[in-house]
Amino acid sequence: MYLPNLVHDLPRVLFSITFIAMMAIGCFWVVQFFMLGCLWTSMLVIAAWPLLIKAQLLLWERRSLAVTVMTLLPFVLPVSIVLSSIVNNSASAVTWASNLNKVHLPTLAWLCRRMWRWRDASSMAPGNRCLPAVSPF
């Protein structure tokens, strides 16, 4: 068996190992943000697997139909619930919108009093001598 005379170049080997290590660290650095999502997704897939098998049995033993139903179910079900809620509450929304001219904003006198007290207290502080000269009132 012929073995060629391999010359081990130490800097080349060290740079190669360093490059591979840096690439591994960089890959982990990018992937770490997706690890929690992948873990959560895998938990959902494991939990929903029996439901997929039952859907496959109900849908003529076709995995593609079962996957389609399982994919669309999380989107169609919430949208239908929201639309049903909007239709059921439309009468009260129309009543509220027709009486909108009778609705007035509450007075915030307590907030104004508190703001004026804060302004008066801060103007008496030693560092705020120029506050009365700058205030618009």
UniProtKB/TrEMBL annotation:
Transmembrane segments: 20-53, 65-87
Keywords: Membrane, Transmembrane, Transmembrane helix
Protein name: Inner membrane protein
Origin species: secondary endosymbiont of Ctenarytaina eucalypti
